[in-house]
Amino acid sequence: MAHAIAFYTLAAFILGFAILVVTTKDTVHSVLFLVLDFLFVAALYVMLNAPFLAVIQVLVYAGGIVVLYLFVVMLVNLKRPPEAHSDPHRMTKFGFGLAGAVLIELGAIVVSGYMKAPAVTSPAQNLPVTGNTEQVGWMLYTSYLIPFEIASMLLLVAMIGAIVLAKREL
Amino acid sequence: MVDTFVIPLLKILVVLNATLVGVTYMVLLERKVIAWAQSRLGPMRVGPYGVLQPIADAIKLMLKEDITPTKADKWVFTAAPIISMVPALIVYAVIPFGPTVNLFGRQVSLYITDINVGLLYIVSVASVGVYGIILAGYASNSKFPLLASLRASAQLISYEVAVTLTLVSVILVSGTLSMVGIVNAQYNANVWFAFVQPVAFVIFFIGGLAETNRAPFDLPEAEQELTGGFHTEYSGMRFALFFLAEYANMIVVSSVATTLFFGGWLRPFPHVAALNFLNFIPSWTWFLVKSFVFLYIFIWVRATLPRYRYDQLMRLGWKVLIPVAILNLVVTGIVKVMLL
User: Residue A81 and residue A79: Cα distance in Å, rounded?
Assistant: First the structure.
């Protein structure tokens, strides 16, 4: 019961801040709401007994990536007048279509989740290591080694791409 | 009931108050030590040898007018000092001041909590603290604070990488992320990790100086260039919050250095029976003494070294500290796999 109350409270905060992110006029305020949103997602991870993931969420998203967002927002003049585009509603139909697709997808996930019986055993229970961090590490380097390596490759490519873009005369 | 609520609350109360008192007296210590280094007396008027100076300062700051510039972003301007202060204080939740001891017939651990991601928790909370600085500069809507906050945040982000890499090599040696676990690992290994990881310790300390915006890396507060730094537009208690956060962060860096590299609450040579007479000194005293040495070095460095230039600072961070930290990490990994 207490678990459910905690979950719905956190979920309400997460959704509320997410709505504020997209409705706030001031871009810096919007980025700040994004930070709050990430912090509440981290709290959700703590509630799900995933402290490692929660800490990484704060470290990487709230403390790392959004700081860079803030830099971009503060240094680049984003205050374009509304009349900069001739038709501000030109993307409305596409937006509604996209939102509808996401809603249908979410509905499908919820429905299929109710159809299936919930998983009784978590894969973490028969690992040779204990502790959340150790289990995450073990899973990453055994069952999910190839996705993990592909993800790191992708990040390397992105990093090299950024350097090439920034230093054209290199 | 007592063990789950009352004792943790009491511990939080004690740690928070001790921190705030410690921070105010750090300011006095800094003024005194720098004065002595420059053949002055320092604060002498309030109380004997100026020991009541922090209280006078606090009263002065509370009575000062609290000004918000008309063109400032009001909400963010108000939130920025709070965002600076809160991470600096909640870090103390995982710092172990001592082991579990018997206190008035009850087993009490001398730390608020010991989570198994303790070290990562400290790093991530510290990374949130940078928002206070960026937002203070932005919300002031004034050019010098903005420049200072950009400097400060670029500096913080750069040195965070090197510091985190050194922490990883300590984690490799200790095999745990828990702060208590790291101290116990040093007890079992019978050596302080400063002697196992000397390179990591030096980089950590330099990075700690830079991350707390202390001399010789105090460019964000370079008075000659920036009038006063990211908190130029702040006055009264809001300015004091930034000030307190800086000193609280210094205590955090000292405590983490003590825990990771100098055995935390352990006495020197804990396995040598001939020194057992040292056991009458409580464990937390060792912790506080070791941390105090670091805090003194912080002040000593400020009194001694001139300020870096900004490009030198960035070059040192990216071209020296980070490569050396990566190399140290790789060597640690190889040694750990090959020899142990």
Answer: 6
